[in-house]
Amino acid sequence: MSDERSGWLSEDDVRAIVRLLGDTLSHTGNDLDRKRFLLTGLARLVEADVWVWIAQKGGPNASDITYFTMIDGGWTSERQRGIATGATWSEEAQPFNQLVKRERTYVFTRTDAYDDEAWYGTDLFKRFREPAGLDDVLGTGVRIREDIVSSIGLHRNLGRPRFSERDRRVAEVVTTEVEWLHRVGIPDIDATPVDNLTPRLRHVMLLLLSGSSRKQIASELAISTHTTNEYVADVYDRLGVRSRAELMSRFIQGKTSRASR
Question: What is the pTM of this model?
Fold first, then answer.
């Protein structure tokens, strides 16, 4: 059996990882199909309910982000999907961002940033994750270059136990030792429309992607509903979309340029 405290993997765990990698290599389809197959299998191994892969250009702050591309699975609502992507901007998310250091690889669980008492008292949990039906999170990834990070988030629904050291180790082995997992599927996209957004409009864009309503955006930014409507319309116009659904689709597999419509 696995040693939950030390993170040592059992023979069964090792066999399951090897089997998953072998099945992934023989899986039919393109690189993104194989990536989806691998991450779905990883989620099964660590008993995650929702998973997401994101490649992000820029820094951890809302005003720094220029684009991200993603594939995901397991979510049951657009609200849950948006929160799982990490698109929600919150000051209380900063401890997680600090865990994503400048080293080439990283892995963390929620307990690295917050103990149970602190976590369940945060606005991040009460305002965003709890309403979306999400609780614990395990993150891992690779810094591809100075300004691009490929990261994987594994999430458990409310009422589920937190991720263990064994889960952390399984995720680390699979996601940091498989080089192509992080390099395929990152398109050579035209990020200019997002680059040209002001810091405030980028913040509005991320809140829209997280599933926040216009009323919630107004509250978050301490602005009027009228001003919020103007910002939302400006974001949609600059990115060439007409709705939140179209905005979300722009970021699936990197479709951020007007030419991709």
Answer: 0.77
Q: Which two tokens stand for residue 142?
A: 């690779």
Tens digit of each residue's pLDDT, the chain (261 residues): 445 555 589 999 999 999 999 999 899 888 888 889 999 999 999 999 999 988 877 655 555 655 566 788 999 987 888 788 765 555 656 677 777 766 788 899 999 999 999 999 998 899 889 999 999 999 998 888 777 788 899 999 999 999 999 999 999 999 888 878 887 766 554 555 666 778 788 778 878 876 778 998 898 788 999 999 999 999 999 888 898 888 877 765 444 333 333
What is the C-alpha separation between 199 and 260, in angstroms, rounded? 24
- Compute φ and ψ for 160, nearest 5 degrees: -90, 155
For the chain, domains (ranges, CATH) are: 11-183 (3.30.450.80), 192-260 (1.10.10.10)
Q: Which residues contact 190 (CB under 8 A, 6 or more apart)?
A: 256, 257, 259
Residue from 243, 183, 209 nearest 53 by CA: 183
Cα 212 to Cα 18, 124, 139, 158, 201: the distances in Å are 40, 13, 23, 20, 14
